[in-house]
Amino acid sequence: MSIEIIRAEMRREDEKSFVGSTVFKIEGDKSVYEITFMSKNGKDWDYSLHFTEQSGDEEELLKMDELLENDDDLYNQLLDAALDAYPA
């Protein structure tokens, strides 16, 4: 599976918490997705997945969410892209 990362960002909300996102497209999908990452301590991450440009097929979004839940490599690649964008 080929993934195209379109853009990524990460920022600090306060002393310890972080919010970031990665916009990406998966080969074969019509939609562009954005995954938003949130962490209160910079170690344990929650995420929210949504369409970036316009609403798409809900089934496609649910399949992508399931893929993220089951594919640690994909999830980590998207999180790493956001973390790499954090200004050091």
What do you see in this structure?
This protein has helices at residues 58-70, 72-84, and strands at residues 3-12, 18-26, 33-39, 46-51. By secondary structure, it is of the alpha+beta class. It has one domain. Strands 1-2-3-4 form a four-stranded antiparallel β-sheet, covered by helices on one side. Strand 3 and strand 4 form a beta hairpin. It is elongated. The chain starts with a strand and ends with a helix.
Count of domain modules: 1
Strand content: 35-45%
User: Helix-strand pattern, N to C?
Assistant: EEEEHH
Mean pLDDT, as a whole number? 92
Name the poorly predicted regions. Answer: none
Distance between the termini: 31 Å
| Rg on CA atoms, Å | 13 Å
Number of helices, where a helix is a run of at least 4 consecutive DSSP H or I residues: 2
Q: Please estimate the helix content.
A: 25-40%
- Report the major sheet: 4 strands, antiparallel
Strand order of the largest sheet: 1-2-3-4
Overall body shape: elongated
Number of strands: 4
Structural class: alpha+beta
List keywords for this structure.
alpha+beta, single chain, 88 residues, elongated
